[in-house]
Design goal:
Blueprint (H helix, E strand, L loop, with lengths): L8 E2 L5 H27 L2 H22 L1 E2 L2 H30 L11 H6 L5 H9 L6 H11 L5 H8 L3 H17 L9 H23 L3 E2 L5 H17 L4 H14 L25 H16 L6 H14 L8 H14 L3 H15 L1 H11 L10 H12 L3 H14 L1 E2 H19 L1
Parallel strand pairs: 3-4
Antiparallel strand pairs: 1-2
Length: about 425
């Protein structure tokens, strides 16, 4: 198979739909680098995105005639640079004209915009990660802006992924850019304690995206693999940019091990399949291997494991077990206890109760769950009655279990999960009547 010489174009005659798919794929891969480089020079993430979008429009106009360049990313970068230089020069001329009118013109050479844009700064992408996930923004705004700037997703795609109105996502993104500008957030990688604090925000955003894909909070689909893929991609980028950060590798490990179960989590008709009922032969061993390798990197980074690495260690216990019965539930319970000490949370306690029930019996788990029934933060959390119903069913208290499953069904916003819970409630009723 021969390849065209460098600098020539390929793809003449591509159908419009095919061309758009190519452009879309290139944009997903290259847009973050474009926006990062442009933000460094422009100092304005909103303007940087506009300039990058201009390059995308130019590609849609030119490539149908010239074909797709052999290095489409480089073409987009070059085009974006030309647009940026023109924009900066116009702004410079306007400033000088304004100064001249005010008789305050001083001699000044035009900055070398081309050189500034050509400067190789390895931290550009990392800077963009930190500005997209800045704590000055709301959690929802951070998620939307991260997917837009780093994932290259359109407003419509983000809206469909999270089942919210496109106008809502658009407003979040616009407000996020304005907030960053108004707060004069510098385009830089923080240092010291601020780096650690900001890194936590970055990891939170990536994991929020992953969790929405792994277990959708609402809608008709139980899982949304595309969101999981996007979160893992962002995580791997961050791991390459911060190789010494244990928690980054811990998060990558956690996501990859969890994602290895995606195919087994859904039945033929899209219905949820719980962990105990999954065909472990359908688990993705390649992803498990990658996840375990990332966990090893997190452990070798030194120091105590953080929350994401601890959760990855828990996921690894499941991944290494050939059956539910072979799972080291005692170790999982101990890991959850360590996680609870590090980040106290009623949700962590609920998960620990499940592990305790597996290791030491349903009665021991139920005792821990009953302590959580009055915790305000869990009152609307559907997994609390779900877990309690499961333990009650194991103990033969099916009437109580049925009530818990029905309550859980009334709390979840995911239709697939609601159906599963109502089926379990009905099964408890049938067993009572048997």
């Amino acid at each position: 198979m021969t390849h065209p010489p460098a600098g020539t174009a390929t793809g003449q005659g591509l159908a419009t739909a095919d061309l758009h798919r190519v452009v879309d794929a290139v944009w997903r891969m290259e847009s973050a680098k474009l926006i990062a480089a442009l933000t460094r020079v422009a100092g304005d993430v909103g303007l940087a995105e506009e300039l990058a979008q201009d390059a995308l429009v130019a590609a849609l106009e030119r490539w149908p005639e010239t074909g797709v360049p052999t290095k489409p990313g480089a073409w987009l970068m070059a085009t974006a640079k030309h647009r940026a230089i023109d924009t900066f020069r116009r702004a410079e001329r306007l400033e000088r004209k304004t100064a001249l009118l005010g008789r305050e013109l001083t001699e000044a050479e035009e900055p070398d915009w081309a050189a500034a844009l050509d400067e190789v700064v390895e931290d550009d992408l990392l800077r963009l990660v930190f500005i997209s996930c800045h704590p000055v923004l709301s959690r929802e705004a951070r998620v939307a802006l991260t997917l837009r700037l780093l994932g290259g997703l359109s407003t419509d795609e983000i809206a469909r992924a999270f089942l919210v109105a496109e106008s809502t996502v658009a407003q979040r993104i616009v407000r996020a850019k304005r907030t960053l500008t108004a707060a004069r957030v510098p385009f830089e990688v923080p240092t010291g304690a601020e780096f650690t604090a900001r890194l936590g925000s970055v990891l939170e955003v990536i994991y929020l995206v992953f969790n929405e894909g792994y277990s959708a909070t609402s809608g008709q689909e139980w899982v949304r693999p595309a969101l999981c893929q996007e979160a893992m991609r962002l995580g791997r980028i961050l791991a390459e940019l911060t190789p010494a950060e244990s928690e980054v590798h811990g998060l990558v490990a956690l996501m990859q091990i969890q994602a290895s179960r995606l195919r087994a989590r859904v039945g033929p008709s899209g219905e949820p399949v719980l962990l105990a009922d999954q065909d472990r032969g359908r688990w993705d061993r390649v992803l498990i291997g990658r996840g375990l390798a990332a966990l090893d990197r997190a452990e070798r980074a030194g120091g105590a494991l953080g929350p994401y690495a601890l959760q990855a260690a828990i996921a690894a216990c499941h991944a290494r077990a050939t059956t539910v019965e072979d799972t080291d539930w005692a170790r999982i319970a101990a890991l959850y206890e360590a996680l609870a000490e590090l980040t106290p949370s009623p949700v962590v306690e609920l998960n620990r109760a499940v592990a305790v029930s597996r290791a030491y019996g349903p009665a021991a788990g139920l005792a821990l769950v009953d302590v959580l029934t009055d915790v305000p933060a869990l009152q609307g959390y559907h997994l609390l009655p779900t877990v309690r119903g499961d333990l009650l069913e194991q103990l033969g208290r099916r009437d109580e279990a049925r009530a818990e499953f029905e309550r859980a069904a009334s709390l979840t916003r995911n239709e697939r999960e609601r159906t599963l819970l109502l089926d379990r409630a009905e099964a408890c009723g049938r067993q009572l009547g048997a």
